[in-house]
Write a structure and sequence with these properties.
Layout: E1 2-14, E2 27-39, H1 51-63, H2 74-78, H3 83-97, E3 104-113, E4 116-120
Antiparallel strand pairs: 1-2, 2-3, 3-4
Helix pairs in contact: 1-3
């Protein structure tokens, strides 16, 4: 099996509801987002999925998140805007866009700070 991945970065603000520490206050992060897809077969060009296609899908999702306060997005008004929920949000959005492709979504990794992050697998 092949695993294909792309990375991007976004900057957001958020506040974590019911957090006992300073993260309950509005603050920002420069997140690194990495998505991985897998495939068993390659197309006639020798690709599982074109990097450009995967990057375009991820860019469309991240454009709605970049430089905004996550708490203002409907999903995050119902789900605390943690790294875990951000990874799940991106996973669900990207999985919907990849329907019909030969490559299936494996995981979304969200790195909040150097040395800390989360990986979500659906």
């Amino acid at each position: 099996m092949y695993e294909i991945y792309v990375q991007t970065e976004i900057s957001t603000a958020h506040r974590l509801r019911d957090h006992p520490g300073p993260c309950r206050n509005l603050h920002g992060h420069n997140w690194t987002i990495e998505v991985r897809v897998g495939c068993q077969r390659l197309n006639d060009q020798g690709m599982g999925i074109d990097f450009a296609v995967l990057k375009d899908h991820l860019a469309e999702i991240c454009a709605r998140l970049d430089h905004v306060e996550l708490n203002g997005i409907p999903f995050f008004s119902e789900n605390n805007p943690t790294a875990e929920n951000l990874a799940r949000y991106i996973f669900v959005e990207l999985a919907n866009r990849l329907e019909g492709e030969d490559a299936g979504l494996i995981s979304v990794e969200v790195i909040e700070t150097p040395g800390s992050g989360v990986v979500y697998r659906g």
